[in-house]
Structures are given as structure tokens and as C-alpha cells.
Amino acid sequence: MKKIYMDYAATTPVDPEVLKAMRPFFSRRYGNASSLHSFGQDARKAVEGAREIVAGMINAEPGEIIFLSGGSEADNLAVKGSVKQGNHMITTAIEHPAVLRACEYLEKNGVEVTYLPVDRDGFVSVQDLKDAMRKETKLVSVMFVNNEIGTIEPIEDIGKICRQKGVLFHTDAVQAFGKIPVDVKKMNIDMLSGSGHKIYGPKGVGFLYVRKGIGLAPLIHGGSQENSRRAGTENAAGIVGLGKACEIAKENMDLEQERIGKLRDYLIENALKIPDTGLNGPRGEGRIYNNANFSFSFIEGEALVMRLDDRGIAASTGSACSSKNLKPSHVLTGIGLTHEQAHGSLRVSLGRHTTREEVDYFLKVLPGIVKDLRRISPLGRK
Amino acid sequence: MGRIENADGVGKVGNPQCGDLMQVYIKVGKNRQYGKEIIKDVKVQTFGCIAAIATSSATTEMVKGKTIEEALKLTKEGVRDKVGGLPAIKFHCSVLAVDGIKEAIYDFLKKAGRPVPDDLEKEHERISRVVKEVEKRVHAH
After folding, report:
1. Total number of domains constituting chain B
2. Domain span holding position B17
3. Closest by CA position to A123, among listed A283, A233, A311
4. Global pTM value
5. In a domain, B120, yes or no
6. Which residue from B17, B21, B51 is facing A378, i.e. has the nearest CB?
7. Catalytic residues of A, which ones?
8. A74 CB near a chain B CB, below 8 Å?
9. Which residue did the predictor score with more confidence, B34 or A290?
10. Interaxial angle between packed helices B118-138 and B91-111, expressed in degrees from 0 to 180 and rounded to the nearest 10
11. From the CA of A370, how many Å to the nearest CA of chain B?
């Protein structure tokens, strides 16, 4: 059976060029970047080369990039490393769990957290943010692009306000980095999380940009790697892979935005022809170009995902049934969906290898599966 | 899977943990050979995950052709084993299917004006309380 991957927001395949760039660092170029000898120097050079590339992607300085294990660690370091007991911080109700759970941890340790609501499309209100700011507010953390519904938050406006008020601004840009232009200077971003495996790089590597002059308490104590901000021998192969993935992403950004965006629009337009189907998240430019998220009334998302998988299609859901705590997606309930609507959600995310044929196959298979699951559902139009 | 029009008994059950809903339909008839009352046909509609769908389908297979007494003896562990085991977090799905059968039998007995065993009456009270709670949540807004 043909296998069709439509879950690029979950992870992406490593680009062959990326793999090629990484390979020597598993075999002959195995030095520890902290070693003084030629093996170490070789690894150091590679790591610093990648640092320059990553910094260039977001208009930062190389010294402002901390390499680490991925998006979750970057979020944890930004949030836990900058906020202390007695501080106040602001975030949103639809952040990635890496930010939300870190905030909950801080709440147990004497930090007050304000969770801003979002509108029906997932946008946070800049006015709400202004109103929530206090004298003790230390940090604002708002994601660049929502991972479930693709909403692109008003990052530039938020950055401006934070800079004016002297409040640190962190953004989890895992779903934006490498897909759309990011400029930390123009957008007044103080900290930014990025990940390798969302952009055809390897898993287990990511970075946190921290604007020069901002002090951070490390999460991992040990050696003086990464300017004493993240101990542990640098993952040279992973970092080199991240660098290569960035180069490829930059080169293809405009073309992919147009090509994938058109496919995605075509997919949305046709999937919405299925009765009792709604689109979650915004339309138009406020949405990342590779994301689609639907709610199919009367059916359950996990069952839908498994039926699609039976036909070779990989997608994901915000259904309660697919989550380990049996609660539906906080993002979907956050934009005002009922339990049933959130239960019946399907996220389809396209990528570099998605073709028109694949989208057509998906659109051919989907209506029948939805119809069949509705037939066996006790719910229906009243 | 599906529904039976003019069913003799309909059981509606819900799961408070994840908001699943299930509706079980039974047709009751006499066994030709022994003249005993059996579940001649059973169908189920499920709004829930694949574990809920699998356990509800397995449940119908397990009770079809069985006497009412036998069907009431069905256990969640029995259903779990029938589908070849379930992850711990999905175990509640098999409870739902078992409850669905109980409710359908309860409905059948009530409609036929027959006496309802005490423990089935108690089970019915518990299950219908849960259904109300889940329906409120599913249809909220």
C-alpha cells in the first residue's frame, strides 16, 4: 500500500543532504568540540559554522545561540531560567505543553502566571496583553505559530510592547522557524526556541536564541559548554545537521510557501465539502501555510486517524482519546470548541514531499471514512 | 456495528473520563431448540476511540445468541481478553460496552413489564447518572 505522510507538524524526514553532512561526525570526525587537539578543533569549527548559519536565519549574532536538545528544552530554559520567585509572567492558554507545564511548575514555586485567552481563530489580543502587564511582570511567552491550528500570533506587536515596558519576550517558534521569515531584531524578540526535526533536520537537537546581555539560570549544570548556559558535550552531528537543514530551508522558503500553501488551500476547500465539517483556526495569511485542522461532527478523531492509517495516510488529532490524560486538546477547547467538536478533530500538515496526487488520494478516501464512522456513531443531527 | 430499528431494548451509556458515548440495541427472541429467551440480534453505535469501537464490536459478538442471564454475566475483563488485551488507559472503554448491554437488557425488561433484578436496578442507577453527566459535557455550549 502507498504510504502518505501528512503529519509534518509532528516531525519531518531528515533531508538526504542533511544526513550526508552529519555522517562524518559519527565516524572519522568524532572529536569533542571542547578538546584542544585537532579532533576537537575540527568538531568546534563545525559547531561554530552551524551556529553562524542558525543565527543568520533569525538575524541574531552567533553568540546569542545556545544549542540544546530540542524545542522542549529550549522552552524550559527560557521560562524557568528567566523567572524567579515573586515574579509575574504572562503566557497564553494555547501554548505548547513544554511552556504550559513549565509555567505550572513555576506556579508551585511562587511565581504568578497569567494565561491569556485567545479568540475563535486562536489569536491572542495585544490589548489583553497590555492589560495583564504589572510592575512585577518579568516575562511574556507567546508562541510564534500554534502547532495544532496554525495560527500565526502577532509577534511583532507583542515584541514592541514588551520592549517598551522592559519585559522579556520569549517565543516558541518551533512551528515557524525555517518556514516563514523570523527576525529577532525587527520583532524585538529576546528569546526564541527552535527545533531541528521540524525542518528536515535530526531529532534531539534545537536551540534557544537569547539576546545578548540577558542572564539565564541554566537547567543543566556541568561543564562550561555553550557559554556555561547548557552543560554537556555538544551534539556535533546533530548541530551540523541543524545547520544544513537551515540552509536548505532558507533556500526553499519562498517556493515552499507558495507550493505547499496552494496544496493546503485546495485540501481545505475540498475537505469542507463533507457535510457537518468545520475548519479550526484562521483562514488566509494569519495561518501557517502547511496546516489544516478540521472538526468532523459526531465522530471521534482517534478512530478517524486509525482508519486513515489503514488506508496509508498519516495524520493526527486533538481528540481526548488519543491523549494520555483523556482530555481533549487545550488548544481546541481554548478557541471555544465543544468537547464533541474537539473530540472529532483532525490535523493534517503538509510538507516538502507532499504532492497533488497525495492530496487527491486523501480527499478521495476521507469522505467515505467520515461517513462510515458517522454510521456507527450514536450522535447525529438533532 | 450500526442500529436496529424497532429494537426490543436500547441501552445508552457514556464514559465520564473521556466523553465517549455508546448506544446498544438488542432484539430478544426464543431459542428454537430449548425455547429459552435469547439475544437474537445486537448492534451498537459508538462515538469514541478505536478501543471503544473494538470493545463494543467484540461485546456484540460475545452476547449474540446468549440467554439474558448469560449476557448479564459478561465482564469487562472478558471483553478485554476477547480483543486481545488493552492498554491500561483504555480499559474504561471495555467497561462501557459491558454497561451498554446491561442497559439494553434493563430497557427490554422495563418495556416488557418484567421484574428487574435488584443488582441490575442498582447498575442502571449508576450508569444513567454517568450518561447524563457525559451528555451535558458533549453537548455543552
Report:
1. 1
2. 9-140
3. A283
4. 0.92
5. yes
6. B21
7. 321
8. no
9. A290
10. 120
11. 12
Q: Do A343 and B19 touch (CB under 8 A)?
A: yes
- In one-letter notation, the amino acid at residue A301 is G
Q: What is the mean pLDDT of chain B?
A: 88
DSSP state of A289: T
Q: Quick check: B131 pLDDT over 60?
A: yes
Residue B1 lies in a domain: no
Give the model's confidence band at B141: pLDDT under 50 very low, under 70 low, under 90 confident, else very high. very low
- A119 grid coordinates: 479568540
Q: What ipTM was reported for this prediction?
A: 0.82
Q: Angle at CA A173, nearest 5°, toward A101 and A342?
A: 60
Contact A233, A93 (CB under 8 A): no
Question: Within chain A, which residues score under 70 in pLDDT?
Answer: 382
Sign of CA dihedral A223, A41, A241, A168: positive
CB contact under 8 A, B138 and A320: no
Instruction: Give a yes or no: residue B70 inside a domain.
Output: yes
pLDDT of A235: 98
Note whether residue B109 is domain-resident.
yes
What CATH number does the domain containing B20 carry?
3.90.1010.10
- The structural domains of chain A, ordered by start, are 4-12+253-376 (3.90.1150.10), 16-247 (3.40.640.10)
Give the confidence band of B139 by pLDDT, cuts at 50, 70, 90.
low
Angle at A63 between CA A57 and CA A66, to 5 degrees: 75
